[in-house]
Specification:
single chain, about 260 residues, alpha/beta
């Protein structure tokens, strides 16, 4: 297996020289979110690669280079980003995304910091058996909590259900068929009763991939809807949720850019 790449990695179209010694990556799903995050880190951030759904900007923060790379949607593409960035030298990953809440007390615009994920993603089993836990890095999770507290943003910390699909897996009936298969019916209520906070689609893959490879990972998401209350995703709520998740992720760099953490 090639662990040090001379030429560009296959999907991201990046090489070691491109990332200029960066060791931390912020990884949203949406390529369109990449420049917004990067420019908030540093106004001189610039794009260094864009291939398929994988868009990368590099920016400087306190004399350390930071990458912002989009993963696209779901576990398979997220695992590609982690694998290929790790080959180039990235050791810490923070997912910056959006989510649907499944607890009634969680409001649109709140922020959720995932400590662990229910492994419904379908990808992580290629890295470890299902009994292996999908857990976030303690250091990154604590940094995210410190960041959101300093910003005064309403937040929740707990377990996320990380699904492979957006519509049936999250028991949405606003689909073409208008139904979900029997195996999935009642899943939302089950996870809600087990105190799971939310649904999203990447964190379980991220956590398991990073843990098995000896990397650090964390996840912060902004709430765009509440599936229990059947709130509809609206532009204003989406923009607020994205903005707050981005603010928390960028603020987290204040804590993470420390010699002890980067060593």
């Amino acid at each position: 297996m090639n662990k040090s790449t001379e030429g560009p990695v296959y999907h991201l179209n990046l090489n070691r020289e491109d990332i200029q010694g960066a060791r931390i990556a912020l990884i949203p799903g949406d390529p369109g979110r990449v420049p917004r995050i990067a420019k908030l880190v540093h106004s001189q951030a610039h794009e260094i690669a864009y291939n398929r759904e994988f868009r990368t900007f590099i920016c400087s923060f306190k004399n350390e280079n930071i990458l912002v790379t989009s993963t696209g949607i779901g576990g398979p593409s997220t695992s590609i980003v982690v694998e290929e960035l790790a080959q180039l030298g990235i050791r810490s990953f923070i997912r910056v995304g959006t989510t649907g809440a499944i607890q009634e007390n969680i409001e649109v615009g709140d922020v959720i910091i995932s400590t662990a994920s229910v492994r419904l993603d379908g990808t992580s089993v290629d890295y470890a058996p299902i009994e292996y836990p999908a857990v976030a890095s303690h250091e990154i999770t604590q940094a995210l909590i410190e960041a959101v507290q300093s910003l005064g943003i309403r937040f929740h910390v707990g377990i996320t259900a990380s699904q492979a699909t957006f519509y049936p897996g999250q028991e949405r009936c606003d689909t073409y068929s208008g139904s979900v298969i029997p195996r999935i019916k009642g899943a939302l209520e089950k996870w809600q009763s087990l105190k799971v906070l939310n649904y999203e689609m990447e964190s379980a893959t991220l956590f398991v991939t990073c843990s098995t490879l000896g990397l650090r990972a964390g996840c912060v998401t902004g709430v765009v809807s509440n599936l229990v209350k059947q709130t509809i995703i609206q532009k204003s709520g989406l923009e607020l949720a994205e903005q707050r998740a981005i603010q928390v992720a960028v603020k987290t760099l204040d804590v993470l850019i420390l010699p002890k953490f980067l060593s």
